[in-house]
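Encode chain A's predicted structure.
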Amino acid sequence: MNIYKFHSNPDELIKLTNIPDEVDGSDWDGEDAGIVGVLLSIGAPLKVINGNVDLSSEDNEHIPANLLVKGDLSLSSSSLVSIGDNVTIEGNLRIADTSINELPNNLTVHGSIVASRNIGLEYIGHNLYVGGDLFLNDTSVSFLPSDIHVGKSIDLNHSTITELPQNFEVNGYLNLSATPITELPKGLDVEGDLWLDGSAIEKLPDDLMVGLTLNISSTDYLDKSNLDKLEIRNIQQ
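Encoded structure for chain A:
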């Protein structure tokens, strides 16, 4: 397979032959970063990308299944539509402002996922593992699967979230500001702050645990009759 790609000089062509299944992302800095993008866009059988790859604002619609990225993968403001199953990213995944509508099954990201402002993002696949923070603010995600694992904080503000898993533990803050969620699950344990301000929350479970501040300001529909029963040190109303 031969691939030709314009370099900085339109008269200069880059020819790629014998496409490998492993490339070094760190080798394609600056204008050469598009070479990795070309390989991804044509469905080349890539299995491993060593180092960071920044394809932000590029025309890359698909990330293939079974890919290992040994660094960060940045695709924000690109034409990204889908990510295949069983992808592992050892750094951060940045996919804000794209056209993606779901996160795939068995996606493993050792750093954080920034998927903000993807209005078409509705579905989170099974066995999502995030070692850092998960940013899903301004998305159309309505529920989180029970087998999700997030190592730090979860930001869902201005999303369409209505359901969280039972006995859900959050190791950082949980932001549900300005969401349509009406109730929280039993056994919810948030190590940091829990923001519910401006949400449609109607009732808080008696066993709710919040390590820092519970923000319930501008919650017009909330029944506050059990607030004095909650073991929460700081409630902001």
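Residues 1-17, 27-33 have pLDDT under 50 and may be disordered.
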